[in-house]
Amino acid sequence: MDFTPHTAADEARLLGAVGLKSPSDLFSHLPEEVRVKGSLDLPTPLSEPEVMSVIGGLGAKNRGDLVCFAGGGIYDHFLPSVVRALTMRPEFVTAYTPYQPEVSQGVLQALFEYQSMICAITGLPVANASIYDGATSAMEALNLAVAATKRNAVWISRGLPPNTKAVLATFAAARDIEIVEHPMVGGRTAWAADAGPEPAAVFVAQPNYLGVIEDYADAAAVAKASGALLVAQVDPMSLGVLRTPGSAGADVAVAEGQGLGNPMSYGGPVLGIFATTAEQMRRLPGRLVGKTVDTTDRTAYVMTLRTREQDIRREKASSNICTNQTLNALAAATYMGWVGPQGLATVGHQSAQKAHYLADKLAQLPGVSLANDSPFLREFAVLLPVDPKQALLAMADRGFLAGIALSDDFPELPGGLLVAATERRTKEQLDGYVAALGEVIADA
Fold first, then answer.
1. What domains are there in the chain, each with its CATH number?
2. Is 0.70 topped by the overall pTM?
3. Which of 92, 140, 290, 359 lies deepest, with the highest CB count within 10 Å?
């Protein structure tokens, strides 16, 4: 209580009201072995100007000048000025959650439009008002599938993003769910029909973590044959050029929506996208905003579905998501509304063209080759003749955030480097990247 604004008299009065003598009595029910002994090792107190100076110094250590060729889920896409101009309005920034529709019509309508746009790009009829991020969206899809099928196993592609697999593993361990991973051959998932116990869901990433475009038909066939739900973790920035997961037979589509109008922000906050079929609507996690009319027949927006049981039933709840990423979802709605279907397609086409140009140039460097010969969109893996982690450091010295070393998550690719090119990259930057990497290889 030394770090609160209460005086000694305040503390005595508060403790007296509950029949205690000292603040430590508040914790007398805790075992002695879990209590902190002695004083906390806290830094010397600082004034507000001193704190701002320290924070500024820490921030200055970040390299905001690097040209970004890294991806893996967070991408350097162009953010139209209109996105920040609208989402930073106080009506949106200060709004917590639209429990009271009579005072929340603006936020509710914006979320309704967001849901409608997500349905349009995923090809599925129902989308919620967002989840925390792409990985937790996948976890909620697992939860939905287990509840729908009453099975305790899931089949996943090795091509799922590593953070998604980690979150799925954490959730599965707590729920006693078996995860069966299917390998990749040539960059694509090699699904096996007899891989293990009957799955509740088959998880495929499109494109997968290595940037390869998967064959939806293979995953859909395995899911159908086993009676499982098909869950597609998609890249929303690709949906202007690739087929929708709904049209490919997916029962659930999840995604990391950062690229839709949200900055990289050193990794967050981000946006989880979740869409599903009408059949699974009652198992939808989070919130669903709907459109109706009020008593005077005026258009009104309301929270149509929000299962309160998830707050009180703990492990028996249909979902453990009790909130969402409203502001990030509003940014996504603004972005999609601004660029439109053609704009999203242009982003996909430009990213693909630049990624393939870069891949062709990199493959001409001595000792460099593409890790896979499968089709890819805007991200791809290359094999380097030098240590990728050392190459990343050397490329940073030359002004490039060069990608992601793959050896930790894909030890079968010890020289692997994951590289992404978005519509923001210029020809000068692409050529500069190739030249810089050539220097790094020559100097090794």
1. 67-75+340-443 (3.90.1150.10), 81-336 (3.40.640.10)
2. yes
3. 140
